[in-house]
Amino acid sequence: MDYKLLVIVFISLLYSCEYKEAGNIENHKMLDSISSYYNFSKDKTQNPAKRKEAINNAYRLLFMQPNDTLLYKVLYRKAIIHNVLKEYDSLIYYNALLLKKATISNNYYYQGKANYLKAYYLNTVKYMPDSAFSYYNQSKNNFIILKDSSEIGKRLLNMAYIQQSNSDYFGSKETITNALKYLSLKKDEKYVASAYYVLASNNKNLLNFEDAIEYYKKAIEITKSDIDKLAYKNNLAILYIEKKAYGKAISILEVIIKDSLVQKNVIKKARAIDNLAYALWLGKSKNVENLFFDALNIRVKHNDKYGLLASYNHLGEFYLKKDSKKSLVWFNKALKTSKTIKNAKGEIEALRALMKVAPNNLKIKNRYIALSDSLQKQELKVKTQFAKIQYDDQLKNEEIQKLKILTVNQQLEVSIQKRQKVIYLLIGIILIILVVFYVYSLIQKHKKDKVQEVYKTEKNISKRVHDEIANDISVLTNFVEDNLDLGKPSSKELLENKLHNIYLRARDISTDISSIDLTDFKKELKNLIVQYNTNHVNVITNLDDYDWQMIADYKKIAVYRVIQELLINAKKHSGCKRITLMLNDKAQNRIITYTDNGVGCIKSNIKSNGLANAENRINNIKGTFNFDTSLGNGFKATIIFQK
Questions:
Q1: What is the mean pLDDT of residues 471-492?
Q2: Distance CA 373, CA 320 (A)
């Protein structure tokens, strides 16, 4: 019975493993299918309808095999394809869903992407520049959190385009200059070229023609896109026309017309022909009328309304002095076309031109004045909104920064309190063991406003040691010399040596705690180094580059004594010709590196030359003292302590 049960359990486990393995294989296949559909939807060479079908398949499969990483990608791609197909309701829905999910999971990358799509829709479809500007700004802030310089620069470029389109040329210049700080020429060549193009256009509109020419040339030089290069050259030619440098404009436009890309694109071809005809006419060339009509016919055939607006204005100017009736016809066509495409600036230009042909027409004048005032008010409103968005954003960032500082300060306060508790405990132990450490514990315990009192206590101790102990021992030595049994010279010599050593030690204690001018510590260190910088030894240091004002006085004393000890050892034992003493700050630490090119020594003998005291001093200020030496290879020491 037991045997049969075991067989059944074994078969069940085997079946379960096979089922799990089959399930895993099926899951992998499904994920592969989702990825395959997604990759197809990204291919811009494919028909948009087929791309939509592929991304919809990927989206449906995700309900069967949830995967957050793929879901973000698929939602973003779905929103983009709906935008391409002008299915704006679907664009809004799926983009909002993407933003909601990305916000819940703190995925700043896709928050930035969703805010970008929202801004793009508001700018290009709804013509709401202030709202679009705000969402571009939000997208930028999402990428600032990620420190994604490329995306930050692109969003600033989008914002600069909107400012320029709404005549905020100064604001656009400031924004695009900021964008260039984030964009990398190596990684973002296309966007850097676009940034210079925007700068050029802004300067042209502000009549800074020389700067505009330089920026157009930079954009032309940087871009690797032949289409963009032609567009930049065309705008440079238009600028030369405005500067009345007709020869330069004609040279550029003649080359553009012959370009194979322009020949294949009738809209670009018509633009180049129209601009060339305009430049030739202004340059006093004859027989350009046919060129104007060649461009016009192409634009009429292909219903290029923005191109027609340019042709009508140019023909109106062309006939202005020759035939005012024809001029009036063309300017009226420009006026009508401007209204059709809702181009207020174009309408104003047409009205301005019509006033030249019909100066006594009050209807035209009144319409011009009303439209100009309305446009100026609208532009001022939009500019003000742009400035407000940026100002509010600045205030928000400042507030965030203040909160960060407050949090850091609170954490620091907690850290200080913990450290103080440890110090108090150590002080209690040290006071029991040795009175000398009492002075040190006071320095650790008290704040800076009590440091001078501690130093005064140190000096009193020093004076007392010198005046009472050292002098008493000196008197005792004289007494022993006068009264010791002369028949035992060895005892006498031994006692004298011991007493003399005690005297020297007491004197050294006094000297050790003797005054150092801590108010000008840098000068004190210089004076110390000067004593050892001789004709035989060259001391190299970067002491002047570092300040000591914020460093606690007890740490200064320790550092001073250790450097003094190192220099004394170098003079006594090293035989070096060069000493290097370099300072460096890293994070919250100060690092002092001492190096000499002397004879070095064996590490096991280090204790005998007094460096043990140096190590203790640095340990007492919670620092580290490390050294490296060997015979014939000089001596190197590194001091690290918290500032």
A1: 58
A2: 26
The confidence score (pLDDT) of residue 441 equals 64
The secondary structure of residue 178, as a DSSP letter, is: H
What count of other Cβ atoms lies within 10 Å of the Cβ of residue 338?
23
Please state the domain extents for the chain. 228-284, 448-512, 518-642
pLDDT band at 287 (very low <50, low <70, confident <90, very high): confident
> What local confidence, expressed as pLDDT, does residue 515 receive?
64
Cα–Cα–Cα angle for 409, 415, 421, rounded to 5 degrees = 140
Summarised one tens digit per residue, pLDDT across range 212-267 is 999 999 999 999 999 999 999 999 999 999 999 999 999 999 999 999 999 999 99
Q: How does pLDDT run across 265-276, given as a tens digit for each residue?
A: 999 999 999 999
pLDDT surpassing 90 at residue 563: yes
Asked if 459 and 515 touch (Cβ cutoff 8 Å), the reply is yes
Hey, which residues does 541 pair with through a beta bridge?
Answer: 581
CA distances from 55 to 35, 86, 446, 485 (A): 10, 16, 69, 111
What is the chain's Cα-based Rg?
A: 42
Contacts of 240 (CB under 8 A, 6+ apart): 246, 248, 249, 252, 279
How far apart CA 480 and CA 634 sit, in angstroms, is 45
Task: Output the furthest CA–CA distance in the chain (Å, rounded).
Answer: 143
Q: How far apart are CA 316 and CA 295, in angstroms?
A: 14
The CATH number of the structural domain formed by 518-642 is 3.30.565.10
Is-contact 54 73, C-beta < 8 A? no
Overall residue count recorded for the chain in this entry: 643
Please, how many CA atoms are within 13 Å of residue 567, restricted to the half-sphere of its CB? 22
Alpha-carbon span 555 to 617, nearest angstrom: 9
**Which residue type sits at 166?**
N
Cβ atoms 581, 594 nearer than 8 A: yes
274 closest CA partner among 238, 322, 230: 238
- Please state, for a pLDDT cut of 90, what percent of the chain lies above it: 52
